[in-house]
Design brief:
The chain is α+β, with helices and mostly antiparallel strands and about 160 residues long. It has two domains: about 10-95, Jelly Rolls (Sandwich); about 110-155. The protein is about 45% helix and about 25% strand. A four-stranded antiparallel sheet has the order 1-8-3-6. About 20% of the residues are buried.
């Protein structure tokens, strides 16, 4: 059990983290969810920062908690953070329909954003395939190199934008 996690079986507990403290580790078995009360969190997936969360009331850890799995990302404090830790997630959501609706809205928003990104990436991949076909026909690899450079630029910018 991490030093900041509740040592009792209470449903909810307010926890505080300092900059750099890890709230949850990618791959860790889920034991509850967290609700941001104040501060800023950073979300890291496979050692790449993918998001920053600073909106009061934001949930983290809900995916693994709802699915009964492992954490999908590492979350750590970027500033001093205060969070509400909810250990018994199912009971909490059954009793708190507003929180359940907020989680559903958050997940729907994330799915919509991912769909937009995948659509963009699909178009980039289709363009690359056309460039590759042309390069095969002309036996000139310069367009492939240029397309790969462009794809790398697009993906790096996407990661930085998160």
């Amino acid at each position: 059990m991490a030093a900041n996690e509740p040592k009792t079986e209470l449903d909810k507990k307010v926890l505080e983290y300092q900059p750099g403290d890890v709230v949850m580790e990618q791959g860790q078995v889920a034991k509850g969810l967290y609700i941001l009360m104040s501060g800023t969190l950073e979300v890291v997936f496979d050692n790449v920062k993918v998001a920053e969360i600073d909106q009061k009331g934001s949930f983290v850890g809900e995916i693994a908690s709802l699915l009964g799995g492992r954490r999908t990302a590492t979350v750590r404090a970027a500033t001093p953070v205060k969070m509400l830790y909810v250990q018994r997630v199912t009971e909490y959501l059954v009793e708190n329909s507003k929180a359940a609706l907020m989680i559903a809205q958050t997940l729907a928003s994330r799915i919509t954003a991912l769909n937009k990104k995948f659509s963009h990436f699909e178009q980039v991949a289709k363009n690359w395939i056309e460039v590759a076909k042309d390069a095969v026909e002309t036996q000139d690899v310069t367009p492939i190199k240029n397309a790969l450079d462009e794809m790398q630029r697009v993906f790096v910018n996407e990661v930085r934008a998160r």
